[in-house]
């Protein structure tokens, strides 16, 4: 608190009350410094006493470095505490000060870690080499799983709709019609994303059926694609071909939606990024499995060698 502000508060406090008051100046490390009684009348003497008291307070603040002034108003008088540290002031200052590390120190730290890693990679002990590579691969696997969690889109509550029932004759007709048509929607490495559903609706504007070609497709993944596209497009699966082709029917009472790309799907760029992380995770998991097998074989070889060494007859010199 500044001295001028303290003076204004004291004068307003004295003028508003008629009882005599005392202005006390207290230091945190010492006893009572001075006591001045101020009455309401006469006003000129009161101001002289106030100015004298404030100047003595200013001298105390100057003498005590890094000290704070605290004023409290009670019924008995006005109290000033000089040298009392504010709570949490130093802690706040420490948080704001960031430890600035020089560029040279950072480079030296990186160089140290590189040399440490190179030493483990070139170690004559195969166990050290395998454990180092295994730990590195497991850290990468955890990092990839964390990255893939960001691409998880919360599914919107599915709208209640009554799927149309088709007879065998209608299904056969739609199947033959869909096979003859040349228009199709590709599902590539990105998988099912918003653009695939959008293209299906654009084809259904002029045609009853549409073919969805899934390439590349893993064994069993074609059924997952069919279920996901049925949920997103509200279409009907007519047939799933052995060459990973799905024929979809739009329905008898089809109405093109206003938003053809569902909100709970990824964009084209995000879908590609997710695919890259999935591929990396798959290769990393295979590499971890390979290293674990190598480590297990090494331990077996080590146990066999130590057993043979124990059973071998000792040659006396």
Structure description:
With 317 residues, the chain is α/β, with parallel strands linked by helices. The protein folds into 3 domains: 3-82, Ubiquitin-like (UB roll) (Roll); 127-151 and 273-295; 168-265, 2-Layer Sandwich (Translation Initiation Factor IF3). 53% of the residues lie in helices and 14% in strands. It contains 9 helices and 8 strands. Strands 2-1-4-3 form a 4-stranded mixed beta sheet, with helices on one face. A 4-stranded mixed beta sheet has the order 5-6-8-7, sandwiched between helices. Strand 5, helix 7 (194-204) and strand 6 form a beta-alpha-beta unit. The relative contact order is 0.08. Mean pLDDT is 78; it is low at 18-43. InterPro entries: At3g25440-like (IPR040286), RNA-binding_CRM (IPR001890), YhbY-like_sf (IPR035920). Residues 164-261 form the CRM domain.
> What is the count of β-strands?
8
Total helices: the number is 9
- Strands of the biggest beta sheet: in what spatial order? 2-1-4-3
- The radius of gyration is 41 Å
Mean pLDDT: 78
Strand residue percentage: 5-15%
Q: Supply the helix-strand structural class.
A: alpha/beta
**Biggest sheet record:** 4 strands, mixed
User: What's the number of domains?
Assistant: 3
């Amino acid at each position: 608190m500044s001295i001028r502000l303290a003076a204004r508060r004291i004068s307003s406090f004295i003028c508003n009350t008629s009882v005599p008051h005392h202005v006390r100046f207290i230091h945190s490390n010492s006893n009572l410094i001075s006591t001045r009684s101020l009455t309401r009348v006469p006003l000129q003497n009161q101001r002289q006493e106030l100015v004298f008291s404030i100047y003595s307070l200013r001298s105390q603040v100057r003498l005590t470095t890094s000290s704070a002034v605290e004023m409290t108003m009670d019924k008995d008088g006005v109290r000033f505490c000089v040298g009392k540290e504010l709570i949490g002031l130093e802690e706040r200052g420490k948080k704001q000060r960031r430890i600035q590390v020089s560029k040279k120190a950072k480079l030296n730290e990186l160089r140290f870690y590189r040399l440490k890693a190179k030493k483990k990679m070139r170690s004559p002990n195969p166990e050290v080499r395998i454990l180092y590579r295994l730990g590195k691969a497991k850290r990468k696997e955890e990092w990839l799983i964390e990255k893939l969690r960001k691409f998880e889109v919360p599914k919107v509550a599915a709208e209640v709709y009554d799927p149309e029932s088709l007879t065998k004759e209608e299904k056969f007709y739609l199947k033959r019609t869909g096979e003859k048509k040349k228009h199709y929607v590709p599902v590539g490495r990105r998988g099912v994303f918003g653009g695939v559903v959008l293209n299906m609706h654009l084809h259904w504007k002029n045609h009853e059926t549409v073919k969805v070609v899934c390439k590349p497709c893993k064994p069993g993944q074609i059924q997952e694609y069919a279920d996901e596209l049925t949920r997103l497009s509200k279409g009907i699966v007519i047939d799933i071909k052995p060459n990973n082709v799905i024929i979809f029917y739009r329905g008898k009472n089809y109405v093109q939606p206003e938003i053809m790309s569902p909100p709970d799907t990824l964009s084209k760029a995000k879908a590609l990024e997710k695919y890259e992380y999935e591929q990396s995770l798959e290769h990393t998991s295979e590499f971890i499995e390979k290293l674990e097998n190598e480590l297990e074989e090494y331990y077996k070889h080590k146990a066999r060698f130590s057993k043979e060494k124990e059973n071998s007859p000792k040659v006396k010199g």
